[in-house]
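Email to the structure team, subject: Tetrameric acyl-CoA thioesterase model.

Hi all, the expression group asked for a predicted structure before they design truncation constructs. Nothing fancy, just the tokens so they can compare against earlier work. One-line instruction: predict Tetrameric acyl-CoA thioesterase, return tokens.
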Amino acid sequence: MKATTLRRILNAWPPFLFAGIRVVRFDDYRHARVKLKLAWYNRNYVRTQFGGNLFSMTDPFWMIMVLKSLGNDYIVWDQAGEIRFVAPGREDVYAEFHVEDTMLDEIRAECADGQKHLRWFETDIRTAGGELIATVRKQLYVRKKKPKG
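Reply from the structure team: attached below.
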């Protein structure tokens, strides 16, 4: 599936659609930009970005992007996640994801012997003006598939 097709599917996916989350850009599984709109239906008690939505806007991207970039010879799963809130989100916020060749080469090298590799990925959530709102960390489990036969 093309990344642009997956972008359309994610934008229609109810957990994103009804939370105000929109995938603005998804380029060949190497770059993504996601927006979380602040609206009456997704604010928390003190009228700022709901923390669950801040985490949700980042949830699937590292796993999908690394899996697609490594190819079918690898197993990739989310292992752990955490969020650190820095400032209240009082406006729309954005998250950017970039998968670099050096990152993929490191993962391939770590998995070459067939062992699992756990790697942390970090994503900042910022306003359009660049103010840091939260930092999300996701840990991926990656392992090379065992040969069939």
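The longest helix spans residues 101-111. The helical segments are 3-12, 14-17, 51-56, 61-70, 101-111. Ping us if the truncation boundaries need rechecking.
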